[in-house]
């Protein structure tokens, strides 16, 4: 092999850079507007979108490991945004749901999330956005087949 390896040309490298950039943007938005970390906001948005969930399911839909989901759930419970209740389907488990205060914060977080995503995608034309959405959906679906 001659010359330097062009890591910056790799899709996975570029995707990682973009993830870091967008995470920083989203984190700043949630922290300044709602005093929530990015992880806390993702959990709140997931509970709001999917309804009451077990901590394991919440971690799965939020793309967090169970321990991250558990810690952030505890923080959101202390902030009065989430409540834990007994899971009738699994006596050993709990379900995590939004509180009344959590529903209001969820609505603000969802609005903020949409606006911030729009700002991130503003550099793309409508056609580019459609192509990107289709390509991402295809890649995600192909990887789910491997799991």
Secondary-structure blueprint of this entry?
Layout: H1 11-34, H2 38-50, H3 55-62, H4 66-78, E1 82-87, E2 90-98, H5 100-121, H6 126-144
Antiparallel strand pairs: 1-2
What does this structure look like?
The protein is mostly helical. The chain has one domain: Winged helix-like DNA-binding domain superfamily/Winged helix DNA-binding domain (Arc Repressor Mutant, subunit A, Orthogonal Bundle). The protein is 67% helix and 10% strand. The chain has six helices and two strands, in the order H-H-H-H-E-E-H-H. A hairpin with a 2-residue loop joins strand 1 and strand 2 (90-98). Helix 2 (38-50) packs across helix 4 (66-78) and helix 2 (38-50) crosses helix 5. The longest helix is centred in the first third of the chain and has 24 residues, at 11-34. It is globular and about 60 Å long.
| Mean pLDDT value | 92
The CATH class turns out to be Mainly Alpha
Strand runs, count: 2
Largest beta-sheet characterization: 2 strands, antiparallel
**What's the helix count?**
6
Number of self-contained structural domains: 1
How much of the polypeptide forms β-strand, as a percent range?
A: 5-15%
Strand order of the largest sheet: 1-2
CATH architecture assignment name: Orthogonal Bundle
* Estimated radius of gyration: 18 Å
Low-confidence stretches: none
Q: How do the SSEs run, as a string of H and E?
A: HHHHEEHH
In brief, what are we looking at here?
This protein has 147 residues and is mostly helical.
